[in-house]
Structures are given as C-alpha cells and as structure tokens.
Input
Amino acid sequence: MNGRVFSGAQPTGTLHIGNYFGAIRNWAALQEDHECVYCIVDYHAITIEVDPNVLRAASRSMALDLIACGIDPERSILFVQSAVPEHTELAWILGTVTSYGDLTRMTQFKDKSAGRKFVSAGLFTYPVLQAADILLYRATGVPVGKDQVQHLELSRRIARRFNSRYGELFPEPEPIVPKKGARIMSLADPSIKMSKSAGEAHYIGVMEDESSIRKKIRSAVTDVGLKPGSEMSPGVENLFEILELATAEGGDPTIVRELREEFEAGKLLYSRLKDAVFEELIRIIRPIQQRRAEVAQSGKIEEILEEGAMRARELARPTIAEVRKRVGLG
Ligand code: TYM
Output
C-alpha cells in the first residue's frame, strides 16, 4: 500500500463526465495500491439551499453512481459525510488556524457567490470543511480535478499552521490531478467548465440516456470555418479531449489520429468528430449504466453506507482525540 488517499464529491444527484474523467476514474484506479477513503459530502452540499428530501435521495444516488463507476466498497471506505460528525468538529478547530485573507481569495467562492441574493457563511468557510475532510484521515493524496487545486493548497497551509502551533500531526496532502481530463469544459459554452449548476445543456450525465447524450453532443459549440493549420477553438479542443479520454479506455486510438489529421488538413467535418465522440462515450458509459442498475436492484446501498461510516469513524476518532488533547480542549 502506498499511503492513504481521500476524496469527496457533492451529492448533486448525478455524476457528469467531467467528474468522471477529472476525478472518479482516478478514485477507482488508486484502489489498486492505496488505502482509499471516499466521501459523499452532504455537509458541503447544504452551503447552498437544497430541499432535505432531495438531498437525502441524492446522497444515495451518488453512492450508486460511484459504485457503478468502479468504487468497490469492500476495498474502499465509501460513506456519507454527515454520518461522521467528526468532520464538523475538526472543521471548527481548523477554522481557528485558517487565515480570513486566504478564504477571501478562493475563486470557487467568488464564482458560487456571484449573483446570489443570499450568500451563506458556510459557503465562505467551505474550504475549511474540505481541509477537515482530508486531514481527519491524515490522507497524503487527494484525487481531484483542476478546479479543486486551490482548495488543496489551502488545506496544506492549514495543516502547516496547525502543525507549527500544536506540533507535527497532519501530513500535507498533495492533489492527484490527471494529465488529461482535469478540466472538461461545457459543451454549450466551452469557456466555462462542465458543471450541473450551469444547466442541462452544459453537461453530459454518466447515467443519461443515449438519445439525450446524442442531442447534446450534436449541438455542442464548435466554430464556423476551417482552414489548414488553423488553431483549434476551445469547443473543438474539448471534443477531442473527450474523444481521447474515452478511446483510452479500451477503444481504438486510430480514430483520434485520423480526425486530428483531417483537422490539420482543414478537412474535418465536425459532424464526424461529434459522431465519434458519441460512439466512444457510449461504449464506456453503457456498462457503467448496467452496473448501476444491478447495484440499485440489490438493495444493499444503506448497508454499504452504514458499514462505510463505521469504518470511517474508526479512523476519525483517534485523530479527533489527539487534536482535542493538543489544543487543550475537553
Ligand atoms: P465536486 O462535487 O464539484 O466534484 C467532484 C470531483 O469532480 C471534479 N470535477 C471536474 N473535473 C474535470 N472537469 C470538470 N468539469 C469537473 N467538474 C468537477 C472535481 O474537481 C472533483 O474532484 N469541493 C469538492 C468536494 C470535496 C472534496 C473534499 C474533494 C469536499 N471535500 C475533500 C476532495 C477532498 C467538490 O465540490 O467537488
């Protein structure tokens, strides 16, 4: 085993291919030679108002998605964050070694708070809870997409400040970011990252049905003209990236080479590129969808999450006990 990794995903109801290529694929791969702790972060999700019934169902649904994508609850610890309240206790304590100035520089906070009537204090202190998630398990690696790298830098600063004030306890966690797929862009607007919050047209769900995926890919933004040797527009680049990522999972990479050559020669028909993206995506998504249906049918998800929470708590309790002692609490 090469140390412990931790990562989390918000229970937004469903995973999109940005989550999958940017993070979840790595979550699955790391299970081979790491001790893995994976968390569905519902405490994070409530920083923006969400219907309680929707949230509870979304957490279960996310667990099913993750298992379908290859997270094995026997090998990894898979659990819902709020079942381990030590996360919030540590977050409070870490908040006292977090610089207010650092929090004001978080770009995700700026993005998520922009245009909102009500901005919660929880949304502002969100990265402190994220640091607590990781440090609670003294994880050394954190598989994430590019958008989380800034939060990870802050987690390291928080660990350093705690260690220097109270004595060495937390390792500084390193982000594990894939070379390709770390930032998949929206199909409808390739200047922003793929996310659910931007709206239906902007993302492809891993569990979405084929006809809807086909429609979204067909209407993906590209550009108007092609001249030999012209620069690739962001939309076309994003489609090529998705195609490459999908073919890398057991597909035939010659199609990517061919299409790239056609592009270079100024002869590529974007409809051909889009068809290839669709075919390759469906090839990898189809078995994931089948697996999800099987896991959902087995009716074991509650049991799996309970067991995961129990195992997570066993790791979390000694850390919290040590933190309380060092800080002089209790
Ligand atoms: P979340 O739920 O937004 O996303 C889950 C993972 O998917 C990655 N991701 C992407 N990767 C590539 N392209 C995209 N368009 C894209 N969109 C999302 C994210 O980088 C992430 O790895 N704050 C975190 C959840 C969290 C967490 C943690 C992560 C809470 N505590 C501790 C790591 C460690 C978030 O909102 O991810």
